[in-house]
Design brief:
The protein is α+β, with helices and mostly antiparallel strands. It has one domain. Helix content is 34%, strand content 21%. The strands form two sheets. The chain has a four-stranded mixed β-sheet. A hairpin with a 4-residue loop joins strand 1 and strand 2. The N and C termini lie far apart (106 Å). The relative contact order is 0.14.
């Protein structure tokens, strides 16, 4: 025969288990309803959008090997390196668009980073693994443009088309950030001898090499 106190204890435990099960079931239903309804108790914040500003792009044209200035209104960040990357992204988006006069695939994602550092003396070459020193507010700058390997792999081969791409990048950087007087190119963070087999990537480009042209060879 089961003692009376054990019967009472068993009954209490059974009632407690049933009550806990009912409570958990209600909590589960409430959580499920909130998930379905897409409720979120955290306050939402609208993303900050940079104000649109005019940017001058030197757009290449394969038909006459020219580079023509084209003004675009773009949302540009305040940081100079990020600004340079955004402007070059728009330039490469134009080249990737259907019917482009200088067709190059890849678009904005082809520019991995743009680093700005003090301009180099003629005999110097930037080390991609070294820390980048900061330039003063008025000193000439070197822009190190890090392109993706996929951009280089799919770029049309030929001295003229490769040179047009590189000079249009240099000219676009200088037109919007006049302190940039030199440009170096990396591919996936590494030095590369050519862009697609012809145009030399091992040298430092001068901003004065790239300017709007009218059908002249670059």
């Amino acid at each position: 025969m089961i003692p009376r106190y054990q019967t009472i204890l068993f009954s209490i435990l059974l009632l407690a288990s049933v009550a806990m099960g009912i409570t958990l079931w209600h909590l589960r239903e409430r959580a499920h309803q909130r998930l379905v309804a897409g409720q979120d108790s955290a306050p939402t914040k609208a993303p900050e959008v940079a104000p649109a500003e005019p940017a001058t792009l030197l757009v290449a044209n394969d038909f006459d090997n020219s580079m023509l200035a084209q003004v675009q209104s773009l949302p540009l960040p305040a940081d100079p390196g990020a600004r340079a990357r955004a402007i070059l992204g728009k330039l490469l988006d134009l080249y990737a668009a259907p019917g482009a006069a200088h067709p190059v695939s890849g678009g904005a994602s082809s520019v991995a980073q743009v680093f700005l550092m003090p301009a180099l003396a003629p005999a110097q070459a930037p080390d991609p693994k070294a820390a980048l020193p900061k330039a003063s507010d008025s000193s000439p700058q070197l822009a190190v443009v890090n392109l993706t390997a996929s951009f280089a792999a799919t770029h049309p081969s030929g001295i003229e088309t490769e040179t047009l791409t590189l000079l249009s990048i240099c000219g676009t950087l200088h037109a919007n950030l006049p302190r940039i007087t030199q440009v170096r190119f990396l591919v996936d963070g590494q030095r590369r001898t050519t862009l697609a087999g012809h145009a030399d990537l091992s040298r430092t480009f001068l901003a004065t090499e790239a300017s709007p042209t009218d059908g002249a060879n670059p």
